[in-house]
Fold this sequence. Notes:
CATH superfamily of the largest domain: P-loop containing nucleotide triphosphate hydrolases
Number of helices: 12
Largest sheet: 7 strands, parallel
Strand order of the largest sheet: 3-2-4-1-5-6-7
Amino acid sequence: MTRPIPVMLLTGFLGAGKTTMLNHLRREPELASQNIALVINEFGSLGIDGSWVEKGSHPTYEINKGSLFCVCVKTDFIRILHEIAHDPPDLVLIEATGVAEPRDLECFLNEPDLQGRFAVKATVCLVDACNFPKVAPNMRAARAQVQWADGLVITKADLVSAGAVDQLKEVLAEMNPRAPQIEANHGQIPLTWLDALIHAGADSRGPLEAPPDPLFSLSVELGHAVSRDAFDLLLERYGRYILRMKGWIDFGEGLLRFEKVGDELTFQPETATVRNRNGFVLIAWQLDRDILYRKLVTLPSPADSAVPTDHAARSPRSGKGLRRFGRMRASV
């Protein structure tokens, strides 16, 4: 009988660093020499995560709607698995959207016509030391990702105190006592740690029938440069409800790649050719989706924007392009 194709699943709540870790793994000589298939899912239609994965010779499959491991994308996922099984790779790496619950993976892999073709090697959950304590109380997906993981990778530990990291480790050990923990710097973890993980098996319940938490996504494409002042004012008003935001934006001085994770906003110049110029996706909650969309697509151009003087006084522009959202980080 043919050996099942091993599958490694990367989970972690929004902005935990999954794409960074995926890029690191693909650069590892031991994996770079293998035939690897990548499956990338995100909660939006622009395919930004796929654009930010470093280019290589590995086949890459993107699912840009809904939450992976939910019946809303089951057909696409099963089709991709059939394509992969037709020309078996050495390993399948799956980067799940940050709001996915991982329990559905083996349910899909055990479909009658796929049974025995794939085997889960490990489920690895990345835990953002800055933001996990803030989102876990309200987001079921964040908790489920930790509870069903075979290994826990703590990211951004350098951005919080040693005491906060120790406290987080204690919480994670209570949530999932069997999963080993490791701290990672920019997604770098030893392959020996990954190889030692033992997969514990799946939740016996069926796949989710709807997205796991009361969230919504927006995919926004703008046809013009926008006012930085108007953009900042919008985030000051609605930013607390926007859990994740990423893509490209032009404030009239060239295209920037940007990310928002919790209260942290980062920008860096975009040097590559971008298909969705001035396009970004976001995940939010407790807002009216249509109102937020209208406010985004009607952001004025730099020439048309007028900002109240009291706002300008409150929020002086920093040289690094950040006003109120914490420290700058140049990572993706």
